[in-house]
From TrEMBL:
Family the entry assigns: Belongs to the polyphosphate kinase 1 (PPK1) family.
Species whose genome carries this gene: Nocardia africana
GO biological process: polyphosphate biosynthetic process
Residue ranges constituting the Polyphosphate kinase middle domain according to the UniProt record: 1-100
GO cellular component, one term: polyphosphate kinase complex
Originating gene: ppk
Domain called Polyphosphate kinase C-terminal: residue spans: 130-296, 303-467
Enzyme class: transferase
Record's comment on post-translational modification: An intermediate of this reaction is the autophosphorylated ppk in which a phosphate is covalently linked to a histidine residue through a N-P bond.
Enzyme Commission number: 2.7.4.1
Protein purpose: Catalyzes the reversible transfer of the terminal phosphate of ATP to form a long-chain polyphosphate (polyP).
UniProt-recorded name of the protein: Polyphosphate kinase
Amino acid sequence: MEDLIAAHLDQLFPGMEVVEHHSFRITRNADFEVDEDRDEDLLQALERELARRRFGSPVRLEVSDDMTEHMLELLLRELDVDPGDVIQVPGLLDLSCLWQVYGVDRPLLKDAPYVPATPPAFGERETPRNVFAALREGDVLVHHPYDSFSTSVQRFIEQAAADPQVLAIKQTLYRTSGDSPIVNALIDAAEAGKQVVALVEIKARFDEQANIKWARALEQAGVHVVYGLIGLKTHCKTCLVVRREGATIRRYCHIGTGNYNPKTARLYEDVGLLTAAPEIGADLTDLFNSLTGYSRKANYRNLLVAPSSVRSGIVERIRRETELAAQGVPARIRLKANAIVDEQIIDALYRASQAGVPVQIVVRGICGLRPGVPGMSDNIEVRSILGRFLEHSRIMHFQAQDEYWIGSADMMHRNLDRRVEVMAQVKDPKLRERLAVVFDSALDPATRCWVLQPDGSWAAQPSPDADSRGVQVRDHQEFLMRLRRPNQQ
């Protein structure tokens, strides 16, 4: 588009001489502050700040690499940009235009569509199975996008909204879709007379306006909408359903690693636990009471909850794994995360490595840990998997303690100190085996990935020419797709 405009500048500025032209792009600071103690109407205060976002201070100036010094100095002066924040780009400044190329209808040039599978526990016969009956038989682990979001998590919430025996639904919402069936189900539940509590995180970056819209729609339907604890973002993915069953009350729960968004659930890899375990239900009840202001609880029976106990819980389990290894117990730590930068956790992993504990990490983004450094991290391996789906789940495995955990927290200061996050232990042996398969596949020596080197660089593994040399190469995500749907081409 910029090339098209540049070619016709004489028509845009008739009677003027176009001396030179160049492309540039400015990135502005999107952060803002709202005084949650002072502002009586949090939504209005947030909307005022959102209107100011496009005037935020510049943090980056991208310019075409053919821009003259004179023109660059003019931009720096007029935009008040520091020279250190300038990036010269030899090519397109806005690669989002390539989506138009992807939009061309050429199926042979794209991945074959994958149809997610309905979890066997929720399998349809003539009609969809009752989710609550299935959960009374045992916990269910869902792995998106290999497992369908719409026939598992979404169905769980929709059936709860329609079930006359359901008394209450409590849910956190961080990001959701524009035409959210989850929000619509909560509205239906409230209009049916159920007690519905929705904790809407209106400070979710770049989703603030959408979440404000949903918050108002929920309030108009009679949903009790809360905005969480002052000074903390509520990032956990939790849902609690309270149901009357005869003379008793039973609680059903969902705890996940990804948002309640059916669109991203087809693109992001995430896991979730659906359970009727009384101890998990009791913990989530306490958590929602804390988030809605009815109590202040820091310690939970079976959950790790940030900012109080996720970091300490992880460090304690790393320390315990190290101690058990010293006693001769076979030990190993396997972690899957989006980012690992917390110093306390990294130091604990270094100590575990020095004690001889193998540490295997699958990380999608930034990693502040250096593996393979002699005397410090010899026993640590870090790899990253890039594929058609965005690897988004957070999973932890401590072999000597025989524990698997899943949840919303990454190992970063913002998650561990400034957000409400939840990690839950997966106890069912069959479900733990499914998580073991995820780790085994991701960490297989033949799996195509990027491996972090001791100097901080990344190297492709196997090497790019492995196929031509006859070296076996496997794709982690294709393996999981075939595992879930073996007959799908």
